[in-house]
Amino acid sequence: MTRGPGKRTGRATRAGPAKRRSASAKARPKRTLGHERLPELQLIYETAPVGLAFLSPDCRYVHINQRLTEICGIPVADHIGRSVRDTVPQVADQVENIVATVIRSGEPIMGVQVHGQRADKLNADHVWMTNWYPLKNPAGAIVGVNVVAEDITERSRAKAMLTASETALRESENRFRELADNISQLVWMADQAGSRYWYNKRWYDYTGTTIKQMQEHGWQRIHHPGHRRRVEEHIRQSFQNGKAWEDTFPLRSRDGGYRWFLSRALPIRNASGKIIRWFGTHTDVTEQIAAEKALRDLNDTLEQRVETETRERLHIWNVSQDLLVVADMEGKYLSVNPAWTAILGWSASDLLGKSSQWLLHPDDQETTLGEIGHLAIGRKTRRFESRLRHKNGSYRWVSWKAVPEQGRIYALGRDVTEIKAAENEFREARRELGQVARRTTLAAMTATIAHEIKQPLGAAVTNANAGLRWLARSPPDLTEVRDTLTNIAADCHRASELILSVRAMFSKNEQAGAPIDINALVRETIGVLRSDLEAAGVAVRFDLSPQLTPLSGNKVQLQQVVLNIVSNAIDAMRPVTDRARVLAVKSASKSDDIVVTIEDTGMGVEAQYVDRVFEPFFTTKAHGMGMGLAICRSIVEAHGGRLSMSPGVAHGSAFHVHLPGSQ
Amino acid sequence: MKATMQDAKPQPVVFVIDDDASVRTALSSLIRSVGLRVEVFSSASEFLTARPTEVQSCLILDVRLPGLSGLDFQRELASANNVIPIIFITGHGDIPMSVKAMKAGAVEFLTKPFRDQDLLDAIQVALERARSRHESEQAVSELRAKFESLTPREKEVMAWVTSGLLNKQVAAEIGVTEITVKVHRGNVTRKMGAKSLADLVRMADMLGIRRTKS
Fold first, then answer.
1. What pLDDT score was predicted for residue A388?
2. Could you give the strand order of the β-sheet that contains B13-17, starting from the edge strand earlier in sequence?
3. In terms of Cα–Cα distance, which of B57, B149, B68, B72 is closest to B104?
4. In degrees to the nearest 10, what's the CA dihedral of B180, B186, B192, B196?
């Protein structure tokens, strides 16, 4: 059977296409199959939309239909007897392999895809789905292989495209879902009527609801009661008129708390502009709102505070009992507070635009200019006093504090006229008191001496007078006269003894006491004068040697010496204004002597007087007695020491008390 | 000495208080040289212990005394109603001290050494002051004796009359007739030895019995 058709087909194909086909179609059923329907089958075979061929075991064409020849473009007739390798070498390996397998196994092989190119479309890969059937002769021997090949190139391409688009769609959807589920917003979609059919995962996570609950009017349940009505109304309007919706309101979380969301919904339209769905988002803005509120509150508070502070500051400016003034760096007044009128009588218009020159006491003008100069180079005024003229012509003392800042001087002046007067009085009283204190010992001593000497002298005088009267009596009472003369002699002796004992008072030997720590003595004595020192603005610097041997002497007298020298130093420094008022007190041992040096930065002693300061009744002070230093020198000399003076290092004077150490 | 001198007419006496013996001796001699009695004491307490009773006397006092000072002693005497005139002497007086002493009634304030005549003059002034005070005190005591001789009603009438009331006013005041007042008034004038109403008023002043209408 296989051979028969093969031969015949071979002949027929060689006879020319159309005629040969119809001839062989007629002949073949008759001759080979003896079947009525052979021409029909032949026709089907020739015109089948699938490629058909019958291959001999050595892969030569026995039959091939028109369709299959389209692969190589060689006519049907030219195929017969030619090998597959000869006509379609590109698939030859695969075909030979399959044919061999089918022949060997005797089983058909179905669904083998064969890839190759058509001769007319060499640049495009084609795929054929092939089925291979073994053809057996009546004896059961395999005589060839029938192959059915369907070109599925288009179909597989379409399928591949479909698969790809499906994958893309799936991926797109996944991406969307991933995005929708992972963005921080709550997202929903609704149909064109506004009925929500999808929420993202965040929505469910946040609200703790299910799609079922949401579809059963659960939407409203998560709204804050205070906002629900408005929100519903607005979104309903948007759904109706197709306009984008935006609102900010709280939504309840699964744990019952509310957070604020900025919510938006946009209509999604198709190509023709019809709304096909709504896409909505809720963005958590709780923090922003809180921050905004905090900021707003802060602003309100700040504004309020600024307002309050401004008011308060203005109030301070207005009610201040001190003079407040803002001036430029030349000292020209730019602004003054009402205290100026209250204290000095001048109105603001009298004062503004001018410097204080016209107001100042003539003696204060220069120092004021100096102070403004200091301010101009950035120094603050901590303590400065000047006299300003009141409108009534009197002067008021004003104590200033001022700060330069950005080309302006801000100054505060306090009327210290009364304080200053009181201070002066106080200082004067203090000074007098100090002088009294300083002289107390001397004065007491003097008074005692005077009294003691006057007693016998007075008695002598009285006795003499009485004697004269007894003599004048008639007769003279000579007994009484003798008595009075005896008494006079006794009185005079007594006076003389007193004078001797006074001299002895200054003698060291008579007064020797306990050993004296000279450092302690110096400190104690200066301590007594502390208030005087403070009142005069004098700083005291001690430089006391700790290795001093105690000395023996009269403590009270030595205190008098220190007291006197320090008091003089204070007096000498009181007029000093251009330098620090410093009292330097030093003690040191020099060979066996102790030297106490008391140095001031005062006015000093003019060279012509240096030699005279220790003379009794010599003084450079208006109210001095000129006894202090004379007595001091006597006391020091009575202690076997020496008191000297030298000019101070830079200013003033230095007094040196040399005292011999203990023997 | 006190006893012998205290005869018919009491002799004035000068007391001296000074802690200085030589001063005491000298003062004593001086005062005696002009014929005055003198008694000396070394301190105020010694003087007080002696309690001298002489009415015509004066005191020479040193300002500076041991214990009580002269000024303190002056104050103490005043508060004890002892009006003895005081002459201060001092070795070292100052103006405030002397002003204080003079204000408190001192006769003189002398600074040693003083002129003897100044002291003796001061003593004369002081003794004269003591004498006149003594006399006025005597007059008052005589007056008081006369006043005490009045009946209670007469005393009452005297008090009202010397206060400037008319007889009928006095009558209304004490609840008797004007005639009765006249009688009482006559008795008062007589018993008191008053020469006139003005004299009677002066007496009432000295006795301190003038009344103001309540």
1. 92
2. B37-41, B13-17, B57-62, B86-90, B108-111
3. B72
4. 130
Interface of A with B (CB under 8 A): 447, 450-452, 454-463, 465-467, 469-470, 473, 477, 480, 483-484, 487, 490-491, 494
With beta carbons under 8 A apart, name residues in chain B contacting A457: 112-113
The rounded percent of chain A whose pLDDT value lies above 70 is 86
pLDDT, position B1: 41
Asked if this assembly's ipTM is beyond 0.95, the reply is no
User: What are the tokens at A186?
Assistant: 């709550």
Q: What is the DSSP letter of A608?
A: G
| Dihedral sign (CA B144, B148, B149, B152) | positive
What b/e readout covers A494-526, taking b as 16+ CB neighbours within 10 angstroms? bbeebeeeeeeebebeebeeeebebbebbbebb
CA-based torsion, A79, A84, A86, A90: positive or negative: positive
Q: What pLDDT was estimated at residue A1?
A: 41
Residue A444: predicted pLDDT: 54
Contacts of B65 in chain A (CB under 8 A): none
**CA pair distance A321, B189, nearest whole angstrom:** 77
Measured CA to CA, the distance from residue A7 to residue A9 in angstroms comes to 5
Q: Which residues pair with A389 in a beta bridge?
A: A395
C-alpha span between A615 and A630 (Å, rounded) = 6
Radius of gyration of chain A (CA): 68
**At residue B68, what is the residue type?**
L
Q: Which of A256-270, A471-485, B37-51, B58-72 has the lowest mean pLDDT?
A: B58-72
Token representation of residue A117: 């190119």
Nearest Cα residue in chain A from B18 = A455
Q: Is the pLDDT of residue B152 over 60?
A: yes
Interface contacts A/B by beta carbons within 8 Å: 83
Instruction: Say how many C-beta atoms besides its own lie within 10 A of residue A456's C-beta.
Output: 27
8-state DSSP, A4: H
Predicted local confidence at residue A161, as pLDDT: 86
A478 contacts in chain B (CB < 8 Å): none
Residues of chain A with Cβ-Cβ distance to B115 below 8 Å are: 465
C-alpha–C-alpha distance, residues A214 and A544, integer Å = 96
Q: Which of residues 55-74 of B touch A (CB under 8 A)?
A: 64
Pick the residue of B28, B30, B32 with the most A CBs within 10 A to test the interface with A by mutation: B30
Residues of A in contact with B36 (CB under 8 A): none
Residue A157 has what pLDDT?
A: 82
Q: What is the pTM of this model?
A: 0.35
**Per-residue pLDDT band at B42 (split at 50, 70, 90):** confident
Intervals of chain A under pLDDT 70: 1-36, 216-219, 429-449, 451, 501-514, 611, 615-627, 662-663
User: From CA A604, how far away is CA A581, in angstroms rounded?
Assistant: 12
pLDDT tens-digit series, residues A579-636: 889 999 999 988 778 999 999 998 888 777 776 777 655 666 654 555 577 778 877 8
Q: Which of A435, A452, A436, A558 is nearest to A503 (CA)?
A: A452
Distances (CA, A) of B73 to A135, B68, B77, B176: 176, 6, 6, 53
Closest among A98, A457, A571 to B23, alpha carbons compared:
A457
Q: Does B19 touch chain A (CB under 8 A)?
A: no
Type and span of the H or E element at A249: strand A245-252
